[in-house]
Amino acid sequence: MAPKWPLLRTAAGFVFGATTEKRQPTHENVQRVNPPDRTISSVPIDRLRGGMGSYLSTETNPQLTATAEQDTGPIAPEDIVAIDFHTHVLRATSGMVGPSAHEESLRALFGFGELPDLRQMAREYRARRMAFVVFDVDDFASTGQEKAVSDREIARIALEFPDVIIPFGSVDPNRGAQAVVEAAELVDEHNIRGFKFHPTQQRFYPSDKEFYPLYEELESRGVPALFHSGVTGVGRGEPGGAGMRLKYSNPIYLDDIAVDFPALKIVIAHPSFPWQDEAIAIAQHKPNVFIDLSGWSPKYFPENLIKQINGPLSGKVLFGSDYPALTPERWMTDFEALSIKDAIRPLVYRRNAEKLLGWPEN
User: Fold this and answer.
1) Which of 29, 60, 91, 317 could, after both became Cys, cross-link 115 (CB 3.0–4.6 A)?
2) For the domain that residue 342 is a member of, what is the CATH number?
3) pLDDT (tens digit, 9 = 90+) per residue, 246-279?
């Protein structure tokens, strides 16, 4: 879907053009801005070698029984045991829940009950001694609905829980120039640390050069782009899949972005069924491409993915739960049952995400 008005590049940024012809990509001719240096904290987490069995036991770690109403207090960086790279917040602090159009099918598929707001999530993750990347998805152009939890609400609450909340934003690329301006403002003024895109839900081909100004903006600010890949629970079982076209989320479309924006860190979300091999190939070939392992219980990981985690992609795979679809405890319990090398587990649970995000900041 082309934006109503094309974008022209000027010294001041992107502005609305005066013609309705499809904008030609201009990124090759634009002077690039190197991403800012980010200090990477070196936190000893060697205790994760050999597995998380004792951590996952409520007998040895009674904090896991804490509820969202309790707050264990801020967690020191050295006590964070993992970074959950993929969580959704679907309830605003006002109590509004979204996306209402798909809530019923998602509840039926994943079986989650009462949804927490972000403050409740933060308390839960403090009890787990985990940090977490969190977002809601902006699909206004296709649904006409604003998301329940705004990026600014996420950013504001992240200031209350800086020890555990890593705030990501989401802008619908189909908003055109507005998306570019909004993304820049969220990073510059609200400390948003990355952006989530859902090509199927937002209904766009990621490699369409129409969206290159947005990627250019993210690259210049040194923040990663997280793209949904593979099948989705959104619309599952609804007539026509509620209009969700799976083709948009084939990870092969991310290869063009990785080539044209080599300084943009790209994260392919989920084991990319039915395109797992494509995701592995891109992550192996492009140094700026990573994979988060969220959304699937590890017991269903294909053998070729497990082999890559233990080998060539050991430094490029990230723990993620897809909460509330899966809890971190469920994901970790099943991951512990896999034959993963002891030295690699700390990379998956925390260190790879730490390097990617430059988190925590000193």
Assistant:
1) 91
2) 3.20.20.140
3) 999 999 999 999 999 999 999 999 999 999 999 9
